[in-house]
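Need tokens for this chain, all 180 residues.
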Amino acid sequence: MKKIIALSVSCLLAFCSFSQWPSNVTIIDPGTSDSVIVKGDLAKGAPMSDLSWAWNSANACFPGTQSSKFKGNHVFFALTMPAQCEMKISVTPTDGNGDLSIYAYRIGAAEYYLVPDLGSCITCEADHKWDGNWKGKVQTSERKVSMQNPGKEQYNILIGISGPAAATSGTFSVKVKFDR
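Here are the structure tokens for all 180 residues:
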């Protein structure tokens, strides 16, 4: 019986150790730094034909009425969110007139679900170009989301950068800042 249990545990550990993000996801490793900046290009992404995961109530990332802001190529980044911190994520196009959108979702540390195959997540946030003006606010080309982790567990964070259907190329910078 002990051999069966040991074999089962070994198989489970081997299976879990091979879990990782797909090759089209760029891993961000901030180390012990309070912030990190990585570069990206929409030309390295691809459009996503099914965006319904975003307005599924188990994810609630952005409403279907805003799907046109996410019809361009999608480029992915991922990192592990440390315990007891707030993470502020922003994307800024190299071209100051670029029209980008950002979303980020939090899942368990042993989960590597990539949209559109995301059944559920702990939380998801998105930002995109406004449809109109907001009183007292000025919109720039920078888009921002934030994630909070007050607990003692780590989580995986997937960051997606996209834009409207015409957004199939264009360079940008993703900044991740940690408040620990």
